[in-house]
Write the structure tokens for this entry.
Amino acid sequence: TSWGVSTRLMGALVMSHSDDHGLVLPPQLAPIQVVIVPIYRSEEQLELINERVGELTKKLRARGNSVKYDNRNTYKPGWKFAEYELKGVPVRIAMGPRDLENNTVELARRDTLEKENISQDSLVSRVEGLLIEIQDNLFNKALNFRNDLITEVDSFEEFKKVLKNKGGFISAHWDGTSETEEKIKSLTKATIRCIPLDAEEEEGLCVLSGKRSEKRVLFAKAY
């Protein structure tokens, strides 16, 4: 069902990008891309921050960015920071009285937890660039992690050795028959997890049957 597919995709998203602080969402999938949190000691300070944030929020939204301004007075800024880290919001902006005086904001990115102070005048362009950086960083991190888990083998002995000692995915030639796949499963408990759509044509011999194969597939155990 579509619900089941969505659940599996969400599970893969959480497993791929979460860390000890919670979820890390790619900007292109995040329902909230930017959250703004005010830091203040008096209602007068909050009113001034509200006014400035209103201007910045309009500019960010005009460029297609989804923005939330959390000026609830029932939670302290530190609690809000932890909440949005847990929810994986890609970019967090904090503004306090000193930022009003200096025309600055504190910008924090969720993927690396790095912070920087920038001018409010350059905020829109910096946020747009940062969202692209975060998207690319998460993609490349996941891609490299996946590639590190793939091992190419050319014999069944290598196949069994890698499966026992390293695990992950095994890239191997397969003759295309269900009989061979079932036999490999009965011998190793590994099954074909993916037939890569972008796999290069590569003539070889099936690791089990020795029959002709035109490309590699990915085997792995289900855990």
